[in-house]
Amino acid sequence: MPKILLASPSWTEMYGGYQDAAKRSILYPPYGLTVLASIAKKAGWQPDIFDGELFADSIDAFKAKIRSFSPDIIGITSCTPTFHRTVQMANIAKSEFNLPVLLGGAHATVLYEEILQNHSCFDLTFVGEADLSFAQFLSGNITDKSRWDGIPGLFYKNESGKTVFTGPPRLLENLDEIPIGSRDLLAQDAYRWSLPGTEGRRFTTMNTSRGCPFDCVFCATHTLFGHHIRAQSPERVVNEIIHIYRVEGYSVIGFMDDNFTLGRERILSICEKVIEAKLDIVMDCWTSAASLTPEITQAMRKAGFVRVNIGVESGDPQILKSIKKGVNLEVISRAITSAKQAGLETCGYAILGLPGETRLSAKRTIQFLRKQKDLDYAFLTVAAPLPGSVMYDMAKKGEGGLKLLSDDFSHYKRYAEPVIEVNDLSAKDLANLQRIGHLKIYLMPHRAWRLLRRASIKETWENIIAFAKSVIISY
């Protein structure tokens, strides 16, 4: 049976000076690779998964994995800030082990021509959503390039050295057909998620929908999955929850959908079915404030959700309009209060350095988050324009007051090390506003008290040390 190794590079370095804090709280598994592994099994391959984030020296560990598993081919995924790590891994697979290397992910989807031109270590790029193209590719002779042309969604060089794009990939319309991921290939006890009531419990992730109807200028999700929402049925979602709980022993689940609560009837049905199944599980999700209502948040709490993560983006009304967020501050505040009144922890995420940002608008964002009494946590990231986003094109052109300082994607980090300037804000100004903003937000007495109450003494001190390293020492 042929073997394929699916690999993900280490990624917490994208948090820059906040890497220590990130490693303590958000070590999540490569869910997408588990799905591809299940697809590979169905096609008659033996898959394995390598997660570089689990190793202090991910490159040495990657070499060791190749030696022990002896794959016939390697597939590597990557996002923009970690692409340099992907290239490093691909060069090793090619030069030291003479293995064919497949590439996929959001970064590859947008820049596939540039990547193949500059990096000979990649033999084939999967452009866009790869479920169907990956299955078709593995179902025949993978070395026969003459059959590649009939598989939509591929980019490669043919035998004569000419680049070939086989056209946009076919999208999977019925997401119920997505196989349950092969989580047995992961180091199952290695991952963690900072949620109440999760100590000693096994954590994993799920993704139940694709596509986003919003047009936020900073986001590039649509390049992979489009704007049309496709979602698994409540039955399919709950069947997987039951499986990973009863068969695989996971009782903490993070839903990584961009907007998990879009679709009132679906989310209410999911919650109802989870309650009926009587599972001892803890869950959280990411979503838009536009879809959070008291009815939904109350149903979520009854089903076992303990936290909801909300995209705030900015506390300045004009910035929200200019980035096409689709909600206003009143809607965001109302969603936060709705979640808190239902008994959910609330976490808000905002971005400094968006198009049109000024010192005044950035301070408004900090003040908005600071004054939200029902907001338990708030995180300020610094905008890093992603290829495929409107903001990236704006930054390249110098629009919206933006100035792009680097073309090196390894510098595109969310914390402490900005790659942009905007209007009257230098990169250093943005980093300082991020640091000061976090201090102002978390030194509010009611918020600090909640954090202390939630954690054990040991965990509290570990979190304080990580926070100090990230917010104070690293600057």
Sum up the structure in keywords.
Rossmann fold; seven-stranded mixed β-sheet; 40% helix; 2 domains; six-stranded parallel β-sheet; 475 residues; globular; alpha/beta; TIM Barrel
Structure description:
Helix 12 (294-303) links the parallel strand 14 and strand 15 (305-313). This protein has 2 domains: 3-165, Cobalamin-binding domain (Rossmann fold, 3-Layer(aba) Sandwich); 191-473, TIM Barrel. By secondary structure, the chain is an alpha/beta fold. The chain has helices at 19-25, 31-42, 58-69, 83-95, 106-110, 112-118, 131-138, 145-148, 222-225, 234-246, 264-277, 294-303, 317-322, 329-341, 359-371, 390-397, 427-442, 445-454, 457-473; strands spanning 3-8, 26-27, 46-51, 73-77, 101-104, 124-126, 154-157, 163-165, 192-193, 203-206, 209-210, 230-231, 252-255, 282-287, 305-313, 345-352, 377-382, 402-404, 420-422. The longest helix is centred in the C-terminal third of the chain and has 17 residues, at 457-473. The strands form 5 sheets. The chain has a 7-stranded mixed β-sheet with strand order 3-1-4-5-6-7-8, sandwiched between helices. Strands 10-13-14-15-16-17 form a 6-stranded parallel β-sheet. A two-stranded antiparallel sheet has the order 2-9. The radius of gyration is 22 Å and the shape is globular. The chain has 19 helices and 19 strands.
